[in-house]
Amino acid sequence: EVQLVESGGGLVQPGGSLRLSCAASGFTFSSYWMYWVRQAPGKGLGWVSRINSDESITTYADSVKGRFTISRDNAKNTLYLQMNSLRAEDTAVYYCARAKDYAIDPWGQGTLVTVSS
Amino acid sequence: QTVVTQEPSLTVSPGGTVTLTCASSAGAVTSGHYPNWFQQKPGQAPRALIYTTSNKHSWTPARFSGSLLGDKAALTLSGVQPEDEAEYYCLLFYGGAQLWVFGGGTKLTVL
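Above: the input entities. Below: the structure tokens describing the complete assembly.
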């Protein structure tokens, strides 16, 4: 069964840092693009970042460029999102998702990040 | 900043047909935007329905179909069921900037 499990969310102060992880299982992780998507409480979905299979391509939404870094460890079947200089508007549930041939699925259940003093 | 626009809300009767659309502030939506459609129910993660305009996943019910309609992407539900009540999001790819943009979502009520 294909499964994605996010972890690492929590409460952090404005200006702080957090690293999210996404553990993948049930498929050949190293063959897929991976994405991060977020959803602020009561709001819509927002694409955050993506990374290709060998980490040679990474792209970011303008709202997080320069503050967030996506990476992966194919040996550990794990995707990461390093989030620095966090702001209140970064408060959201963060989902990881698998992508291939412009089809994005499945998604994990998400991890909540709260940025507040 | 490119904006992707969906109808904020739509209402449909059980058994009816409804079309949700997805427009881009950058111009006409084409197959090159690789439109994806997702369904999200309260408290759940999004679930993919359609990819690259009109392709269905193996779990996508036959009553869901994707297309291009004029200058927009479209998701049509034919023979709507009560369980189709949910939020629906489209997602478009902008190759020049190499980024994806979600629409604001359509809340579909089955009444």
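Note for the figure: Residues 39 and 88 of chain B are 5 Å apart (CA to CA).
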